[in-house]
Amino acid sequence: MVSRLGFLGVIARVFVWAFLLGLAVVVLYPLLWMVLNGFKTNAELFGDPFALPVDWSFDNYRKAWNRGVSDYLTTSVLVTVTSTAATVFVSAWAAYGLTRVDIPFNKTITALILGGLMLAPTVALVPLVKMFQAMGLYNSFWALLILYTAFRIPFTTFLIRAYMIDLPREVDEAAEMDGAGRWTAFWRITLPMCKPIITSTVLLHILFTWNEYLFAMVFTSGSGVQTLPVGLTSLMSKHGTEFPVVFAGMVIAAVPVVLLFFFGQRYIVRGLADGIGK
Amino acid sequence: MPVRAIVRRTLGLGWVVPALVLVGVFVYLPLAQNLGFSTLEWDIYSGSQEFVGLDNYSRLLDDPVFWSSFGNNLLYAVISIVFQVFGALVLAALVESVRSERWRRGLRAIYFLPSAISLTVAGLLFYFIYEPNLGPLNHLLRAVGLEQFTQAWLGQEGTAMLAVIAMSQWQGFGYSVLLFSVAIQRIPAEIHGAAAIDGVGPIGRFVHVTLPLVREMTGLMAIVTISGAFQVFNEVMVMTGGGPNNSTQVLGTWLYRSGFVRNNFGYAAAIATVLFVITLGVAMAQLWVTRRRRVEW
């Protein structure tokens, strides 16, 4: 930069900084307030909302954990892990088929799979409920696994396909010349080359599944199959006015994804940026 | 073509069949079924189904809550465009004007934090922030002498919808800032440098360099934001459940309530069709934007 800061420039910079930092406070304070409330007693919560907890006890966390949060967390982890694996593998196969294998109706199939991106889950809600009731999968772990996988395949395939198109073809062609089958070439060569985008899609899928509410709320009701977002609302309605326990539950639900974001920021940003329109 | 080659090509379909089947059965099929369901008078408990043609749609037109829900989605879209598209673009430019790389990264990460936590957590959190007795918002107003503005933010028709939308801006703006930052970073540094040498100030550079060069991202963000505004569900369910007096119903929650609480699946399916038309229209616009040639540099 060549510009020299005059007096006005300095004033402008001060304002910009004050604004940016002020906004950071507006973002962070509610989150901090949430964490602090998880340590308060009910009486403290209804007292001065800006006060710090008197005694930093993990009681509320223990209570939240024992009143269902451990179940919700287990379900969330299970659904997240299985649907992430299912979505990413099925999407990577599809992307490989569409970019590396000579298949009939390639254009039509690409349009069909990626076209799913345009459809809102809400629109399919009523028929899906009917369908899962008929299959006997309503209110089960399977309903969430299937729905999270099916509805995220278009987006995930879109990202992996766009990445695979840009990869050099010579490498996997060479592998096939060496007598390795397609299957081997996919696992040994193409998939490892796609590691950056696979990481992005894995992280984005985890964020999505962990936070998803519409399907989780409509398709599950018992505490054995509820994920955290729905479980938190049950915790809220079941335990009436013991709000600090609810805050503790919220913190437990938020911490894993916040950590995930901090450690995988680079990949998440890349996935989001490519996903919106490469 | 020799038979062996045909067999080989067909076998290649194995790669895409799992994806096709899952998307076909669970995404496309229900969509088609929904159209059929919307022509039924359908009581899910008794199981009685009766063909009523377009009755559900004409009832929709006479339903004041349908229209107020639609209006709320529209309000959501307009406010989100202001804050999460234009506001976020200006904000991203300000963040990117910070010299220190570490601060830029830190600010982007802080702003994005609310987008990483779920809408459920964010919604519950703001339910408490707006809470008239223990909520810090009213306490803050009292502390600065604005006692007359304290109120039950989510409890009255006049403020509830705006309070929910405000939460959503808090939750979502960092996501837009992040994406606009990526777009701004892709602008070659020489262009800004050249403009600066020519004596163009920072505001002039924003208007004449940044704005035109992130036009495509701006278009895409606007489209994604509008589409999201019509799919709102989670935050409304968590914060108000559509109340008070249906004043915060949006199409998604009204669909849910019509079908699953008021037990009228045909009517819910008709609302779904309206949502389908809107979101598909918006998605077509997105396709059109991405297909156009981007700005060359």
Automatic annotation (TrEMBL), chain A:
Pfam families for the chain: BPD_transp_1
Membrane-spanning segments: 6-32, 72-96, 108-129, 141-165, 185-207, 214-237, 243-263
UniProt entry tagged with the keyword Transmembrane: yes
Major site of localization recorded for this protein: membrane
Xref: CDD domains: TM_PBP2
Cellular component terms per the entry's GO annotation: plasma membrane
Protein's membrane topology: Multi-pass membrane protein
Keywords: Cell membrane, Membrane, Transmembrane, Transmembrane helix, Transport
Location within or outside the cell: Cell membrane
One example of a Gene Ontology biological process annotation: transmembrane transport
Record-linked InterPro entries: MetI-like, MetI-like_sf
ABC transmembrane type-1 domain location: 73-264
Family: Belongs to the binding-protein-dependent transport system permease family.
Stored PANTHER family: ABC TRANSPORTER PERMEASE PROTEIN MG189-RELATED (PTHR43744:SF12), ABC TRANSPORTER PERMEASE PROTEIN MG189-RELATED-RELATED (PTHR43744)
Protein name: ABC transporter permease
From TrEMBL, chain B:
Keyword line: Cell membrane, Membrane, Transmembrane, Transmembrane helix, Transport
Bilayer topology term: Multi-pass membrane protein
Domain called ABC transmembrane type-1: residue spans: 70-286
Cellular-component GO terms for this entry: plasma membrane
Membrane-spanning ranges: 12-31, 74-95, 107-130, 160-184, 213-233, 265-289
Keyword Cell membrane listed: yes
Similarity comment text for this entry: Belongs to the binding-protein-dependent transport system permease family.
Protein name, UniProt field: ABC transporter permease
Gene source species: Planobispora takensis
Gene: yurN
